[in-house]
Amino acid sequence: MAGEEAQNGRDDMQIDRPEPHLPDEFNPNYLKVYYGKLFPYGDMFRWMSYGNDGKHPGCDSSYFSRREFAYTTGEDTFWRYQSFDSEAQFEKSIKQNCPFKIDIGPVYTVEPAKRNAYAQGDGNNVFTPVERELIFDIDISDYDDVRYCCSGADVCLACWPLMTIAIKVIDCSLRDDFGFKHILWAYSGRRGVHCWVCDSSARRLTNEQRAAIADYFHVYTGNENSQKKVSLTGFALHPFLVRSYNEVLKNFFETKLLISQNILSCEERYEKILDMIPDSSVTSELRGKWQDKRRSSNTKEDINIVRWEQLKQLLQSGRQRAQGLRRCVEEIVFSFTYPRLDMAVSKSMNHLLKAPFCVHPKTGRICVPIDPKRCEEFDPTAVPTLSQVLDELNQEGSRADANLELSRTSLGNAIRVFRSSFLEPLLKACKEEIESSFSAKLQNSRDSLNW
Question: Domain of life of the organism in this record (predicted)?
Fold first, then answer.
């Protein structure tokens, strides 16, 4: 059922309170307690308001009410263009509807829920997006051609480091190359990560500017069936790519991914890499070495490392090697490790993205923030689940104070990380910008009067 014309709230949901020791699988009946006691409405409202809290004369009192939210309720019910005038209305709507998923869209010129009232018959569209975080979406399923432990939406500790590497590469570049400071990384709840760049300069980017930034990161161009999967153009690599390769990708590939995925362990797998080498004489020589099982079994070293060193030596040694062959080593590493972005998500201002602290209906896992400084420590299999946090609540009974409720659950630490490492520095910067802008306007007004 399409829900674009639905009302902001529903009051026909009756959900029983769960009992202690809940089963691990996701149960929509548990959402009423989660949204009633644990969902961080205040933090989400403060984030989406960006300092426009009405406490300063320079605030935009309509800012939050012009933000689009979308609900998925049940298997086939999707409501777009939900908007709210206050934190209380936002909280009331979520508690009434208990959505399986909450998506966040852009800030529009007018309130999304009232957009039809602004419709004009002369073709002028006054309902247009004016602000939106710069966002990135990275899914582990897009790496299926380079991981052999899992496929599709499945993920384990052997392939999850591919997401860790993506966070490191993109986060470093956003900060060092573009100067952004307020960046939130969040686990999607199942198979990937989301990135929210929340600096005011990022939120005000045009679609063309967003596309340019997305293209800056666009290196992976292949698919499961293509031999050449990355585009490394030019005589020399871009400094961003050199830094990514030397500081992150090369070491990860050679010390972890080669072994964890057994990339060169058998003919079916090493033939994929040989297909990336454009020189038939090189591939024939390597194939001959690797098919000689007697020579391969004589060493105690891991077979993947032995074969990789043989490949590097053959491609990179000797003056006769052309630049293209030398770059093959880099291309292989980039093909296996470089972030694979959903480009469409980043390029369009009006694209929706799942809100942090939702519960994934397939896994029951909560979409918690990831600290990019400690992303190596993040374990997707240890993320708090809906049943887990409700069990933790039930162990000591209900309390009136929401912060006390949170502190007794494993979700509490995730929210503390969200506040301390992201929200508080962001709001401090937003308020300083609002005050500075307001002071500048006052000064301009005084100067015009004095003139």
Answer: Eukaryota
Structure tokens at 379: 């374990």
- pTM (predicted TM-score): 0.88
- What was the pLDDT predicted at 230? 79
Angular region, 22: left φ>0, alpha ψ -120 to 50, beta rest: beta
Model pLDDT, residue 448: 64
- How far apart CA 280 and CA 407 sit, in angstroms, is 62
d(CA 396, CA 385): 18
Nearest CA-CA partner of 117 in 150, 74, 144, 83? 83
CA dist., res. 379 & res. 362, Å (int): 18
Verify whether residue 137 is a known catalytic residue: yes
- State which amino acid sits at residue 116: N
Cα–Cα separations (whole angstroms), residue 144 to 171, 222, 294, 332, 389:
23, 12, 31, 15, 32
Q: Which helix H or strand E contains 138, and what residues bound it?
A: strand 134-139
φ, ψ (nearest 5 deg) of residue 309: -65, -35
Asked if residue 242 lies in contact with residue 249, where contact means CB atoms within 8 angstroms, the answer is: no
Catalytic annotation on 12? no
Active site residue 19: no
- For residues 410 and 384, the answer to whether their CB atoms sit within 8 Å is yes
User: SS3 helix, strand, coil % of the chain, rounded to 5?
Assistant: 50, 10, 40
Helix (H) or strand (E) holding 331: helix 323-337
> Which residues of the chain fall short of a pLDDT of 50?
1-21, 320
Closest C-alpha to 390, from 35, 9, 7: 35
User: Closest Cα to residue 13, out of 76, 83, 74, 80?
Assistant: 74
In this prediction, residue 7 carries a pLDDT of 42
Give the number of other CB atoms < 10 A from CB of residue 216: 13
Catalytic residue among 68, 131, 171, 330: 68
Active-site annotation holder among 53, 103, 131, 137: 137
Distance CA 437, CA 443 (A): 10
Amino acid letter, 140 = I
Residues 6+ apart with CB under 8 A from 316: 325, 326, 329
**What is the per-residue pLDDT for 430?**
96
**pLDDT tens digits for 13-27?**
323 333 444 556 678
**Which among 139, 142, 171, 330 is annotated as catalytic?**
139
What gap in Å lies between CA 358 and CA 243, rounded to an integer?
Answer: 35
How far apart are alpha carbons 365 and 24 in whole angstroms? 10
Tokens of 247: 């500081």
- For the chain, the farthest-separated pair of C-alpha atoms sits apart, in whole angstroms, at 92
The values of phi and psi at residue 195, to 5°, are -125, 130
